[in-house]
Write a structure and sequence with these properties.
The protein is built from 10 helices and 4 strands, in the order βαβαββαααααααα. Strand 1, helix 1 and strand 2 form a beta-alpha-beta unit. It folds into 2 domains: 108 residues, 3-Layer(aba) Sandwich (Glutaredoxin), CATH 3.40.30; 105 residues, Glutathione S-transferase Yfyf (Class Pi), Chain A, domain 2, CATH 1.20.1050. The C terminus is likely disordered. The chain is α+β, with helices and mostly antiparallel strands. A 4-stranded mixed sheet has the order 2-1-3-4, with helices on one face. 54% of the residues lie in helices and 7% in strands. It comes from Teichococcus rhizosphaerae. InterPro entries: Glutathione-S-Trfase_C-like (IPR010987), Glutathione-S-Trfase_C_sf (IPR036282), Glutathione_S-Trfase (IPR040079), Glutathione_S-Trfase_N (IPR004045), GST_C (IPR004046), Thioredoxin-like_sf (IPR036249). This is Thiol:disulfide oxidoreductase. Pfam families: GST_C, GST_N. Belongs to the GST superfamily.
Length: 241
């Protein structure tokens, strides 16, 4: 059994997509980040960076004590290696490298840039045209990179669905809020429709609706999500400032 500490964000969806695809038994432990639950001591013991998702694997390979893990990319890689699915084995050096480089592309590029896009265009109390323009354009550039990559292959790393696709897809779901049109990226749009139609994806997003259909960011949650520093997090994490 795997405990998934989760909220309904793109990074959270990555892990439910894997777990549903792989058919691994898991239990969702909701962590309402809009209410500051990511700063509870029991969550920080697993995820010291106070970000979801995190897992506690009660049946790790080889047995022994449960394995805690945070960071969505690390979790995907761990689960892929645990199950032997959605990533080539170590002996397939080239195939594994294809998956890993696109997983890291999402973690280091698409996710952070789209996240800043969301922040400045949707959530920032002051609309800063330069910041909005900068991140909308960078998101557009990254969509172009992905579209070209998908021009001659079914999935991001080749013919087989992988953890790279699972990592990227949830960050494309809010494309309209990112100021992007999928019709401008035909290869990406074809891939997006194929991933969306997978039963594992459908089940994962249905689980999200079971947990919450309410927006995470509102006036009450804004300071919790965007107002943290090292000092006020340590002092009183749920009430920054």
């Amino acid at each position: 059994m795997i405990d998934l500490h989760y909220w309904t964000t793109p990074n959270g969806h990555k892990i439910t997509m894997f777990l549903e695809e792989a058919g691994l038994p898991y239990r969702i432990v909701p962590v309402n980040i809009g209410k500051g639950e990511q700063f509870r001591p029991e969550f920080l013991a697993i995820a010291p960076n106070n970000r979801i998702p995190a897992i506690l694997d009660h049946e790790p390979a080889g047995g022994g004590a449960p394995v805690p893990l945070f960071e969505s990319g690390a979790i995907l890689l761990y689960l892929a290696d645990k199950t032997g699915r959605f990533i080539p084995p170590a002996a397939d050096v080239r195939g594994r490298a294809e998956v890993l480089q696109w997983l890291f592309w999402q973690m280091g590029g698409l996710g952070p840039m789209a996240g800043q896009n969301h922040h400045f265009s949707q959530y920032a109390p002051e609309k800063i045209p330069y910041a909005i323009d900068r991140y909308v354009k960078e998101t557009n550039r990254l969509y172009g990179v992905l579209d070209r990559r998908l021009a001659d292959r079914a999935f991001v790393a080749g013919a087989e669905y992988s953890i790279a696709d699972m990592a990227i897809y949830p960050w494309i779901v809010p494309h309209e809020r990112q100021g992007q049109k999928l019709e401008d990226f035909p290869h990406l749009a074809r891939w997006f429709a194929a991933v969306k139609a997978r039963p594992g994806t459908e089940r994962a997003y249905a689980r999200a609706q079971e947990i919450s259909s309410q927006p995470t960011v509102n006036e009450e949650s804004r300071a919790i999500l965007f107002g943290q520093t090292a000092a006020n997090t340590a002092a009183n994490p749920a009430r920054p400032g």
